[in-house]
Amino acid sequence: MRKSVCQLLCRAALLMLLSACGNSAMNQSGDSADGEASSDSDDTIKIGAILPFSGVYASLGKDLSAGMKLYFESVGWEAAGEKIELIEEDTAADPQEALRRTRKLMDQDNVDILTGAVSTAVAYAIRDEVDSNQLPYLASHAGGNDLTRGERSDYIWRSSFSSWQIGNSMGQWAYDNVGDQIYVAAADYAFGKEVSSAFMEAYEAAGGEIVGEVYPPLGNNDYASYLTTISDSEADGVYAFFAGSDAVRFVQQFEEYGLKEEIDLLGSGWLVSEDLRESIGSAAEGIYAASFWDYNLENEQNQKFVEAYEAAYDRRPTVESLEGYDAARILVETIESLDGDVSDPDKVIEAMSAVEFDSPRGPFAFDQETHHVIQNMYVLETVMEEGRTENKVVEKIENVQDPGK
Amino acid sequence: MEVIIAQFINGLSYGMLLFVLTCGLALVFGILGVLNLAHGSLYMIGSYVAYSITTTFTQSFWTALVVAPLVVAVIALIIERTLLRVTYRLGHLSQVLLTFGLAYVFHDLTKLIWGSNVLSIRVPDLLSGSVSLAGQTFPLYRLVIIGVGVVVAAGLWWLQNKTRWGAIIRAGLSDREMIGALGININFVFTAIFVLGGILAGFGGVVASPILGLYPDMEFQTLILALIVLVIGGLGSIAGTFTASVLVGLLETFGRYLFPELSMFLIFGLMAMILVWRPNGLLGKQVVEG
């Protein structure tokens, strides 16, 4: 009896393992079909994008892709008279899979420029391959600090954000506006830890005190115990880093446990992002969040972007849509300033790093030292408007620049 | 002291939630000897159907609470009649393969129908709001779940121990052939048990989703928790599942409170210890080999 149950459970475990492998194998023949058609013509510029279209980050990958396509569409898939061809590969946010796909893009498709990566682990995994092959790579989401620090490469530039930018920008603001005692709760993975430690560093430098820290595992389903502990502390506010389903549960449970009336909740923009707020409902009201873009940013570029996106896809853009849109724009401007000649990777990088423009997020420029975007950060407050929640900009922190070390 | 009491209530409510999620799996495994790895999927379908009902059709949580489990029951009925029946002669491996394959099929279907965004179900007005206990605020819904867990447990205990049905089930558990010889349609009993397991999974889905939310991969997370409870509690015993759920709920809650970094380790540690100390689980019975 004992043996058979053990065997049964072992078999079940083995099956789960097998199916995990099988799952990634099944996706092999994914999205490259549209790339095959016109592959050998010389006057096309090939851009490879590694994005997750399956797995946990699938919706982020889809939004990035939608944003990119929207911009390429707006220039008629052409730059400097050359046709642009986008070849997308599904990484499923798996570093090994991403490495295989990157090699495929380089060896079979001969892409000129690479972009994408949602998961930081993926960006780290392909880093050496990109570096040694001198493939220009524009990182368009993955925010791990090290990519533009210890792992910096001549060929890697980042247009999205770094963990440091997200966390650090809110430290002084929190001290000035929330109070001098804050509790930190962040999902227990590299990104959560990096963002919250950047916040703590800035908050303590401003004079505040961190009264407690807790790091629930990623994909945690019940925050009751943590919330009871937090409510027992003397904190004026909670700085929370959670994303996706974790954010929905944390924010809802924060309200249900009556903490909302007692203390402020603040965190990164992913806590109240465009695609989550409908699920969160009114519990999101009153949260302060730091982000480099918001749907309600009032500038001409953003209005144009939001209108075009909604017309094309019939839904609101997310911050990932914006990242894709900007990445596509940077690539187009790079190609234009090179007059369509992308054969020399060093020249591509030089041209890319010089790109400056007015993005829907505000002024956009690269830091030549760190290869990292210099951008405004915005502190948002979530408010109720006509029965649904909206984010409103309450403060702009200009030109936040990653220290690069 | 007040914090301890508050955490105790948290743990109890989480434990009861686990029980509601697990009892269907325990019932099916305990009685039919079928390890239904699609149990999490049935739970998930319950959640998503309830989501559709509460947001698009009737806007009523109570309708969802009745309809969603029935939808899942129909799916369970189809699975048992068309696919699972064939495997009873073939043993555990084919059942595990089949149900795990089904889990993937359901995973893709659900994503196709409802997309991959995070969704959530609102707590009905009657049960929303908070209650003050031991100097802490508790969501009323969490306290209601404790009650629901107790009622479900009592109901299953009554069914298994006090009714003719229970007698047949218990007899079937120890000697399947004998039951057949007594002129009872054992096939029908099996179908009924599997459908009941489905109803419980669907019910669990509706009850849990206001707290746990709906998102891709929710079914595998639930399945792992359910398997842990099943192993700790022992097979074929509703009382064991109940005890294990409460134990895991309390341990996880206090683990998070006292050693937040170790909470997952504590659960698996407990499971390992119990497997060494009582290989059949806390209150496990012998299960007939299929």
TrEMBL record, chain A:
This is ABC transporter substrate-binding protein. Keywords: Signal. Residues 1-25 form the signal peptide. The keyword Signal applies. Belongs to the leucine-binding protein family. The keyword Signal applies. It holds the Pfam family Peripla_BP_6. It comes from Halobacillus naozhouensis. SUPFAM superfamilies: Periplasmic binding protein-like I. CDD domains: PBP1_RPA0668_benzoate-like. Residues 44-382 form the Leucine-binding protein domain. It comes from the Bacteria. InterPro entries: BCAA_transport, Leu-bd, Peripla_BP_I.
UniProtKB/TrEMBL annotation, chain B:
Keywords: Amino-acid transport, Cell membrane, Membrane, Transmembrane, Transmembrane helix, Transport. The chain crosses the membrane at residues 12-39, 59-79, 86-106, 140-159, 179-203, 223-251, 258-277. InterPro entries: ABC_transp_permease (IPR001851), BCAA_transport_permease (IPR052157). Pfam families: BPD_transp_2. It is found in: Cell membrane. Its main location: membrane. Signal peptide: none annotated. It comes from the Bacteria. The keyword Glycoprotein does not apply. It is a multi-pass membrane protein. Belongs to the binding-protein-dependent transport system permease family. LivHM subfamily. This is Branched-chain amino acid ABC transporter permease. It comes from Halobacillus naozhouensis.
